[in-house]
Amino acid sequence: MTIAIYPGSFDPITNGHLDIATRAAKLFEKLIIGVYEAPNKHPLFTAEERVELVRQAIVGLPNVKVESFSGLTVDFARKVKAQAMVRGLRMSADFEREFDMAMMNKRLFPRLELVCLMANVEYQFLSSTLLKEAASLGGNINGLVPEHVAAALRKRVHSKM
Ligand code: ADP
Fold this sequence. Notes:
It contains six helices and five strands. By secondary structure, the chain is an alpha/beta fold.
């Protein structure tokens, strides 16, 4: 079985992430979205909350699963027996960072192939960070995240204000 992981912070999952997951799900028999716990990044949502937001977003994708992980991404890949790792590439922001990480991961786990999918033009400038900023300032985030994520974001930024 071809298994791929799609790791990230997903704080929270956006339509850009979902677009990558939907496309990757057509390439692999099983795709596991790995929610990196990332406590040092002080995420807005806990790992459990992020996993739940992802779970609700992928109900229509039967071969996509979600799990949280901590530690090295390559160790998570080994644990779930993945042959490939999927990442999304936005035009300006991602290439250099992904390249560096890919070189390191290749040393750590040579058999794991990296598959980068180009971000959809609609979501090129969408990041979880910008999204949280817009939401906290009362901006309209419709169309950028699934409805349940928008609701969770509004609730969370209000409780922090
Ligand atoms: P990380 O902390 O690893 O960057 P993110 O949750 O921000 O985690 O992103 C996870 C993956 O999704 C990364 O490969 C990132 O480049 C990609 N990604 C983020 N936003 C988008 C988007 N709008 N369109 C496509 N891919 C994206």
